[in-house]
Amino acid sequence: MIQKLTFCVLALFFSTWGQAAENSKTEIMWLGQSAFKITSPTGKVILTDPWLLANPKTPPEYKKLENLGKIDVLLVSHAHWDHFADAPAIAKMNNIPMWGPGDLNSVTVALGILPSNLAPRFNKSGTVTPVPGIQVTAVHAEHSSILVWKNPQTQIEETHFGGEPIGFIIELENGFKIYHMGDTGLFSDMKFIAEYYKPDLVMMPIGGNFTMGPKEAAFAAKEWLKVPNVIPMHFGANPLAKGTVEEFQKFLEGSGIKVNALTPGLARQF
Ligand SMILES: [Zn+2]
Fold first, then answer.
1. Which end of the chain has the least Cβ crowding within 10 Å, N or C?
2. Which residues pair with 269 in a beta bridge?
3. Mean pLDDT over residues 133-149, rounded?
4. Is residue 114 part of a domain?
5. Rounded Cα gap, residues 176 and 25, in angstroms
6. Which of 47, 77, 209 is nearest to 140 (CA)?
7. pTM of the entire structure?
8. What is the structure's pLDDT at 59?
9. Cα 210 to ligand 1 centre (Å)
């Protein structure tokens, strides 16, 4: 009887311990281009740059936005459609704010795309706590940002000022820091951002044409970011963004930096 009880207690201890160890991981799923679903160690779900419905890389099941499950934090790096597209719908579905460049959010409200309570303002170096335990800081990105929007009243495509593009430092409950660079070309303050915020993992564009290509991204990773882990993004969805993971890996050879090439729809733990 005592033996049995000891066994039960031990089994309970190890199963709880195992669960805790498992739960301390961050789960990251790529949904194509710059869209990621990040599940924090305590189960908070962060979604970045959701261009899903028309994204050729997004797995079919996630083209139904409700299949994403509940989203706690929504981040949009700039106004271009391959980042902004489905964000307003997701903000409304979950009744959560869309955290994007302050001026983009002002335009979003002015156009009636989102109500002001779902489009708060913040800007570079600003840190917000969208939900307890998750901190998001806006950082510089070297890109542009224009909102091309079809006016539902006139059915005419209009272009609007979209604020300045940003990247994000996302700090999770356990201190794990992800640097989502947004769309960016090379700029030397990446070095400063990495030194100051000390990210553990960097999501970096490698497609070229609109952003850094494999060579520039590898240079940034090796010389400036000096992180153990990178995830390539922003390639393979637009025929002009031709950069590949293989080229990126080749340029990083011998650096000791691990290229985590994710398959859209398959989550990986970090
Ligand atoms: Zn883009």
1. N
2. 27
3. 98
4. yes
5. 10
6. 77
7. 0.91
8. 98
9. 7
> Residue 20: what pLDDT?
42
**Angle (CA) 136 85 49, round 5°:** 30
Report the C-alpha gap between 64 and 82 in whole angstroms. Answer: 17
CA of 237 to the centre of ligand 1 (A): 10
Give per-residue burial for 163-181: e unless 16+ CB within 10 Å, then b. Answer: bbbbbbbbbbbeebbbbbb
**pLDDT above 50 (res 125):** yes
**Ligand 1: distance of its center to the CA of 82 in Å?**
5
21 — pLDDT class (breaks 50, 70, 90): very low
How many separate domains does the chain show?
A: 1
The whole-chain average pLDDT of the chain stands at 93
What is the Å distance from ligand 1's center to 2 Cα? 63
Q: What is the predicted pLDDT for the residue at 51?
A: 98
Q: What is the domain extent for residue 246?
A: 26-259
Is residue 20 in a domain?
no
Dihedral angle computed from the Cα positions of residues 216, 199, 48 and 132, in that order, rounded to the nearest 10 degrees: -170
Nearest by Cα to 38 from 170, 175, 193: 170
104 occurs within a structural domain: yes
**Closest of 139, 133, 142 to residue 172, by C-alpha:** 133
